[in-house]
Amino acid sequence: MKHIYHYTGSSLWSKARPFVLGMLLCSGMASAQSNNPVINSIMTEETSNSQLEKMAHELFDGIGPRLVGTPQMKQANDWAVAKYKSWDIPAKNEKWGEWRGWERGISHIDMVSPRVKSLEGTQLAWSPGMGKKTTTAEVIILPDVADSVAFQQWLPNVKGKFVMISMLQPTGRPDYNWQEFALKESFDKMKADRTAQTDAWKKRISKTGFTNKTLPVALENAGAAGILTNNWSAGFGVDKIFAAYTKIVPTVDISLEDYGMLYRLSESGNKPVISIHCESKELGVVPTFNTIAEIKGIEKPDEYVMLSAHFDSWDGGTGATDNGTGTLTMMEAMRLLKKFYPHPKRTILVGHWGSEEEGLNGSRAFVEDHPEIVSKLQALFNQDNGTGRVVNLTGQGFVEAKDYLSRWLAAVPDTIKNRIKTNFPGQPGGGGSDFASFVAVGAPGFSLSSLNWSYGAYTWHTNRDTYDKVIFDDLKNNAILAAIMAYMASEDPQKTVNTKTEGIKWPAQIKATRRGGLDK
């Protein structure tokens, strides 16, 4: 809509413009909602005065990624509490466990021979730091040996060298790019070659007598200067950034483009030499928290509606779409509810969970620690799979979910709800995100599942999960949806009944890991 109006010279228009645009946007939504002032106010406020972009800047650009056990995770917890309190919403950080404390420092990675080139790379999470030391050494490739005996005989060759332990990818182009431009026979040949190469590399690892997890430790124990990996995410310029297994020397993910160059140089006998300087700090055992905020109910304060999103992230990027967008959606929904529905019938809670990435630990701990809330849960709505607008809602295997979810969804503007595909009763989620922690104990937890926006390849756990990938128009829709669903669930005169569908195998409850990362 902003491209329609070009004249901004009038101060009157400048002042009126946000309100007018908001009303224009809202006019495209369902007119059936016009007789509900709470819903209308939510829609108008979010379209004309959204706080999502401001919060995204503060969280993603200012604080950054939120790896469990890092100071940035605690900084984010404190930021969220302060933000809620600025909206007059009581909030707290609730300790649920302890984790290995670690903080990422600067990294410099350069090739110095046979030519000089700065390399794109990222030390993996929990990688050992090098202090102020810089190591310059030759790069070698993990060899294809006959068996574990032959590998032990070769192992002394790693002393003082950086060892490449990932496969050389045959292409840096994603499959969709091949499909668009390649001859079919070329594409088919590439895929066949890649499959054969992948199988061969798995056998190469297996024949060492180690696994992907234990091999780096064996190499560092033999005196390797460091470990080089490439965990390509099947998109242009994007890698997955997970955890290091080494305890002494750094483990660094090198981008596909630079990893391939080093591999080919080494394979052709050019003996590439690189220089690595990676700093990080071990911080001992640190407490870990969930951030919980509350709008107290006035009629049924001991029944609960919950909004839900995990707060932690991996730290190759800034955790923008996994799960910063889910976090901000729920924060914005709470802001809207407090402003236009300050005295709900039921208590409305929001949970920003820690250590989801390591096994839903924060939400599993909450379920264990708060049976008084879980047993009185009217519904929980969780969002976690990226920046897109919500398009799927399933009943998670509960018989009555169709009745009450459909009833609440009917109040949502047509332009939002008509894009949502429902599936009832559906299957109970056994994992994947924090709603599953509640489903496992028979509580009504639901996933607001969104369009992927190339989430799996480009932003999920990658070095490209950053602010610029956020689609704020979709987030605004999601904040409106979450706020209205929470409002309707709170106002519903009936308490939800949650009968498990017969013939469905229900997931078992899994205990939270309360002390993590300490064996690394």
UniProtKB/TrEMBL annotation:
Gene3D superfamilies: 3.50.30.30, Zn peptidases (3.40.630.10)
Record key words, sorted: Carboxypeptidase, Endoplasmic reticulum, Glycoprotein, Golgi apparatus, Hydrolase, Lysosome, Metal-binding, Metalloprotease, Protease, Secreted, Signal, Zinc, Zymogen
Subcellular location: Endoplasmic reticulum; Golgi apparatus; Lysosome; Secreted
UniProt entry tagged with the keyword Translocase: no
Domain Peptidase M28: 290-479
Main location: endoplasmic reticulum
InterPro entries (UniProt xref): CPQ, Peptidase_M28
Annotated signal sequence range: 1-32
Subunit and interaction comment: Homodimer. The monomeric form is inactive while the homodimer is active.
Protein's UniProt name: Carboxypeptidase Q
